[in-house]
Amino acid sequence: MNFTLKIWRQKNRTDEGRFVEYTVKDISPDASLLEMLDVLNNDIVRKGEDPVAFDHDCREGICGSCGLVIDGRSHGPNRGIATCELRMRSFRDGNTIVVEPWRAKAFPIIKDLVVDRSAFERIMQAGGYVSTKTGGVPDANAIPIPKPVAEEAMDAAACIGCGACVAACPNGSAMLFVSAKVSQLALLPQGQVERTERVQRMVARMDAEGFGNCSNNYACEAECPKKISVEHIARLNREFIRAKVAG
Amino acid sequence: MKLESKIPAGPIEKKWDDHRFNLKLVNPANKRKYTIIVVGTGLAGASAAASFGELGYNVLAFSYHESPRRAHSIAAQGGINAPKNYANDGDSIYRLFYDTVKGGDYRAREANVYRLAQVSNSIIDQCVAQGVPFARDYAGYLDNRSFGGAQVSRTFYARSQTGQQLLLGAYSALSRQIGEGQVKFFSRREMVDLVLVDGMARGIVVRNLVTGELESYAADAVVLATGGYGNVFYLSTNAKACNATAVWRAYKKGALFGNPCFTQIHPTCIPVGGDYQSKLTLMSESLRNDGRIWVPKKQGDTRKATDIPEEERDYYLERLYPSFGNLVPRDVASRRAKEMCDKGHGVGPSKMAVYLDFADAIRRNGKAWIEEKYGNLFDMYHEITAEDPYKTPMRIYPAVHYTMGGLWVDYNLMSNIPGLYVIGEANFSDHGANRLGASALMQGLADGYFIIPYTIGDYLASTKFKPVKTDDPPFRESTKTINDMVNKLMSIQGTRTVDDFHKDLGKIMWEYVGMGRSEKGLKKALKFIPELRKEFWSDVKVTGKENDLNAELEKAGRVADYLELGELMALDALNRSESCGGHFREEHQTEEGEAKRNDKKFSYVAAWEFKGENKKPALQKEALEFEYVKPSQRSYK
Ligand SMILES: Cc1cc2nc3c(=O)[nH]c(=O)nc-3n(C[C@H](O)[C@H](O)[C@H](O)COP(=O)(O)OP(=O)(O)OC[C@H]3O[C@@H](n4cnc5c(N)ncnc54)[C@H](O)[C@@H]3O)c2cc1C
Ligand code: SF4
Ligand code: FES
Question: Which structural domains are found in chain A, ordered by start?
Answer without folding.
Answer: 3-111 (3.10.20.30), 117-246 (1.10.1060.10)
